[in-house]
Write a sequence for this structure.
């Protein structure tokens, strides 16, 4: 069995309906983020992230992480001596493979999807079903 973290938007705060809003309804709707469903992030080593980090970062929309990775690669190319560079690159790619899912969790939390729970299941589909069974409120952002 694998473990997955579930990332979902925090519940909306309770607002009073008796207090009139100073913002027009259209402006309030325009600023509200689109509802998103829960995102499952598996635990463990990511072989694709270790083999091709830039493509993995792009596939998961980790723009800041990609920029930091490119900056680190350029710094390594300029600062490290030639014989050490392949070993340092291999070590960096292994580190990316081990930390890729944590970098994804960090990015999701930065974008307003904090960790909502942890679930154990054999695959992502079973994990989502178990999470929705335990907390039906997570299904708000799911599309049919």
């Amino acid at each position: 069995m694998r473990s997955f973290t579930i990332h979902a938007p925090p519940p909306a705060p309770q607002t009073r309906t008796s207090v009139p809003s100073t913002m027009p309804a259209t402006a309030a709707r325009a600023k509200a983020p689109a509802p998103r469903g829960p995102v499952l992030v598996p635990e463990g080593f990511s072989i694709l992230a270790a083999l091709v980090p830039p493509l993995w970062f792009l596939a998961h929309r980790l723009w800041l992480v990609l920029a930091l990775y490119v900056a680190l690669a350029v710094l390594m190319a300029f600062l490290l001596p030639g014989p050490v560079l392949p070993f340092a690159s291999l070590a960096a790619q292994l580190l990316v493979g081990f930390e890729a899912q944590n970098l994804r969790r960090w990015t999701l939390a930065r974008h307003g999807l904090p960790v909502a729970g942890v679930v154990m299941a054999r695959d992502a589909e079973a994990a989502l079903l178990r999470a929705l069974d335990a907390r039906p409120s997570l299904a708000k952002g799911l599309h049919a």
